[in-house]
Write a structure and sequence with these properties.
The protein has about 220 residues and is mostly beta strands. The chain is about 5% helix and about 35% strand. The protein has a six-stranded antiparallel beta sheet with strand order 6-7-10-17-12-15, with no helix packed on it. The protein has a four-stranded antiparallel beta sheet with strand order 11-16-13-14, with no helix packed on it. The longest helix is centred in the C-terminal third of the chain and has 12 residues.
């Protein structure tokens, strides 16, 4: 896909690469098939993760950074492929620079493979991307997130090839609220952003004419 945003970024999203967009006080973006692939039958599979900013940075200027797949550190541990997408793990460090301590690791288990996951961050969770696997001997279906106990080392295993991501980091400095594409530590800020979007008082993406309306109202936020 091709990423475009209101700060002028135009970047292809390629297999294995990371596009890290920081919304800050507000950004608009689109993700479309490249022109040369229009009309082709194809399948796109990826993960989009959202990381809450520290309160002091929530209203910072928006930013965008692209990291090619070839620069992501990778290693093999007993046949298990590990790619450290963000953060530090297993003596590797990603070149991606987040706004707070963040962990994001791509783990590919071969048939019969196993990996012990140490306490790499204060908060951790695993998510099965494809195929089932086991966590501490318990079968886990794909597309399910399991929050890991703080401070404990856990083992993941797979009878058949499986893909798992490990995510985590330091705890946020307070609760966050999320509605549609808006995330903030303030309910009022989300309501303000929704009103600005509805009134079209938001950043525009160069070359884009399509407008996505709000899916409702965040009035349920007390």
């Amino acid at each position: 896909m091709v990423h475009r945003d209101s700060i002028g970024s135009v970047q292809a999203i390629e297999p294995g690469a990371i596009n890290w967009m920081t919304a800050g006080r507000g950004v608009a973006h689109s993700e479309r098939a490249p022109k040369e692939r229009l009309g082709e039958r194809r399948r796109t599979h990826g993960l989009q993760l959202w990381a809450g900013l520290p309160k002091a940075l929530e209203e910072r200027e928006p930013a965008f950074a692209h990291t090619p797949g070839g620069t992501i550190p990778e290693d093999q541990r007993n046949g298990v492929r590990i790619r450290v997408l963000i953060g530090r793990a297993w003596s590797m460090e990603s070149p991606v620079v987040p706004m707070s301590e963040t962990l994001y690791v791509d783990i590919a288990l071969p048939a019969g493979g196993a990996l012990d996951i140490p306490a790499l961050a204060a908060e951790r969770a695993v998510y099965g991307v494809e195929a089932s696997y086991s966590l501490q001997g318990k079968s886990m279906e794909p597309y399910t997130m399991a929050v890991l106990p703080e401070g404990d080392s856990v083992r993941i295993e797979a009878k058949a090839p499986a893909r798992v991501v490990l995510i985590g980091g330091e705890p946020l400095d307070g609760p966050r609220f999320m509605w549609w594409n808006f995330v903030s530590s303030s309910r009022e800020r989300i309501k303000q952003a929704a009103a600005e979007w509805e009134a079209h008082h938001t950043p525009r993406i160069p070359g884009e004419t399509e407008w996505v309306p709000l899916p409702g109202s965040p009035s349920f936020l007390p």
